[in-house]
Design a protein that fits this description.
It is built from two helices and four strands; from the N terminus they run βββαβα. It has helices spanning 44-49, 59-64; strands at residues 15-19, 24-27, 40-43, 53-54. The chain has a four-stranded mixed sheet. The N and C termini lie far apart (56 Å).
Length: 84
């Protein structure tokens, strides 16, 4: 697929930029969308079917994986939060 041609994808299947060298794809709004030396536009479903994976900062990557959970911060000397 030519990097200049953007495919028509469904509403639930957004266009992504796939870095063909690293097999990482970037969503619209990501700073690498359309900008890597090796790459092209694809529909997300086609990129996933080809074995590509979402960039960590990409919203598709967040949707495809479990959300990260943070432990609450506890300052030394402060009382521990209740577990109720």
């Amino acid at each position: 697929m030519s990097s200049a041609m953007m495919p028509r994808c469904g509403a639930n299947d957004p266009v992504v930029w796939v870095n063909t060298k690293t097999k990482v794809f970037h969503m619209r709004g990501d700073r690498y969308f359309g900008k890597t030396t090796h790459g092209g536009y694809m529909c997300t479903a086609a990129a996933l079917a080809a074995g590509d994976h979402a960039a960590k900062a990409s919203s598709a990557g967040a949707a495809a994986s479990e959300p990260a959970t943070k432990k609450p911060r506890h300052h030394k000397g402060a009382p521990a939060p209740d577990a109720t």
